[in-house]
Amino acid sequence: MEDEKKPLEEVPTEEKEELKTEDVEPQPEETPVEKTEEPIVPKKTKEEVAQKIKKQIAKNKEKFEGKSRIMEYLKTEHKWENYLFLVVSIITLLLGVLMLTDALIVKENFPLIGKYPDVFAWILVVVAGIGTIYALYPFFKPAIPEFKKITWLTWPKFLGNATRVLLFLVIFTLLFLLYDAFITQILARIFS
Fold this sequence. Notes:
Elements: H1 2-5, H2 13-23, H3 46-64, H4 69-77, H5 80-100, H6 117-140, H7 144-148, H8 155-191
Helix pairs in contact: 5-6
């Protein structure tokens, strides 16, 4: 007991540890803090989980069967009538161009068209061009807002870049012409 009353500095280290453990008084238990009620989140039922898994499996199957998001987008956003209209417009445009180039000749006794085949061909080309633009518009409509976000070069920067590109093209064209002339002279001397 006398050891216990000695200051800790005088007590050997083994006894210090014993004294520390003996002198420690038990702490009073903390009073439980009132917990705020957390919102009760309903657990997913087995049926919901099974349905979710089935949906994921179906999506994976679609990917492997060749169905892509592009096709899904085309089916939902664009009507089949647009595709049909596009095909008809292109065929009409081709017919008009064939008539203008005299690859397709209309006989003079053909009603309405026979006397003025060029006028009719131009009407076909204009109507088919408008139809093609109208049929393709839904494909490009989503891109219009994106074009508005583009910041274009200022005129001086554009001219500087264009000049550099043209200069680069001229230098490489001359370089390839010189190589060609040099190689042709060498080949001519070898094979003559």
